[in-house]
Amino acid sequence: MERSMILAWILVLSSTVVLTCCRSYYSDSVPYVSAPKKVTHLHFFLHDTLTGESPSAVSVASSNITIFPDHAAVHFGSVLATDDPLTVAPEITSEVIGNAQGLTVLASQHELSMVVYLDFGFTRGEFNGSSFSVFSREVQDGDRVCRA
Questions:
Q1: How many domains does the chain have?
Q2: Which stretch is the leader sequence (predicted)?
């Protein structure tokens, strides 16, 4: 019985300490002050190669329903896996500083519209070891690419 009482007092005291520590964040009398914003400017080039000996994006799944003309490389329901190099200059032979890996799904039956998930990972340079992810919709209208 005595051990139970000791355990009960320990639980009561520890919960009191936790509530006291966390109360200041939610207090009405102490305003929340956010940290200053930090802006980082990234400059790199992504090379997406669909053909040739070593393509960086390949079709991994495809639907047997085809809406687009037969000469289209990919159709509605297609899924492409991507491992694109990121370089410091527009030339594909320039220094590689990372890669963008992810998936692209052709998600529209009536237009060339894709849902894209890419994880950009940096392996060299100032941002070595850093990464960020993008999940977006991409609509191709003729020669233009409209990103939403």
A1: 1
A2: 1-22
> Is position 6 within any domain?
no
| Tokens, residue 57 | 């994006």
Cα separation, 63 vs 79, in Å, equals: 9
The pLDDT profile of the chain, 148 residues, written as one tens digit per residue, is 566 667 666 666 666 655 555 555 566 677 778 889 999 889 999 998 888 888 888 888 887 765 555 555 667 888 999 999 999 999 999 999 999 999 999 888 777 788 999 999 999 989 999 999 999 988 876 655 544 4
Residue 120's nearest CA partner among 110, 128, 109 is 128
Which is nearest to 99 in space by CA: 137, 138, 125, 62?
Answer: 125
Decide: 102 and 117 in contact? Cβ < 8 Å.
yes
